[in-house]
TrEMBL record:
It comes from the Bacteria. The lineage of its organism: Bacteria, Bacillati, Actinomycetota, Actinomycetes, Propionibacteriales. Pfam families: Pyr_excise. This is Pyrimidine dimer DNA glycosylase.
Length: 142
């Protein structure tokens, strides 16, 4: 499971769909609808939020917005708490940088045109996140 701190615009088509599916799974875990992935490290930051379901809902809304901008139809009715714009979380610059390198390696393999397009870009965070100084997050399995 990879719930990117990066803005969904940086993801290729496969990455965007995978992010949507994996975050829907995270939402199900947080809502207590599934027993799997209970201890997945990617859920740590959402569990630490004041309202985990609102935060994951805001995250899903950001992914759905990007899908809509690309002409895809992600089913927003699957978002339990569509709290777009009402939630905010922190992410460290080190985490964003780590994920950028990870994404560029993935794109180089499966979507070279996207890798080239983003080669000189400054990575932006998902709209849910506000970037603060710091190293890779402690929950990350680097």
């Amino acid at each position: 499971m990879r719930i990117w701190s990066l803005h969904p615009r940086h993801l290729d088509a496969k990455g965007l769909v995978a992010c949507w599916r994996e975050t829907l799974l995270a939402q199900a875990v947080l809502a207590g609808r599934t027993k799997g992935y209970q201890h997945h490290p990617q859920l740590t930051r959402f569990r630490a939020a004041a309202d985990p379901l609102a935060s994951v809902g805001a995250y899903l809304s950001g992914v759905a917005d990007e899908a809509t901008a690309r002409g895809y139809r992600f089913d927003r009715s699957r978002i339990d708490h569509d709290a777009e714009g009402s939630a905010s979380m922190l992410v460290t610059q080190g985490q964003l940088d780590y994920e950028w390198e990870h994404l560029m390696a993935k794109l180089t393999q499966r979507s070279p045109a996207d890798a080239e397009r983003w080669r000189d870009a400054v990575p932006q965070p998902h709209p849910l996140f506000r970037v603060v100084p710091g190293p890779i997050e402690p929950w990350e399995r680097a």
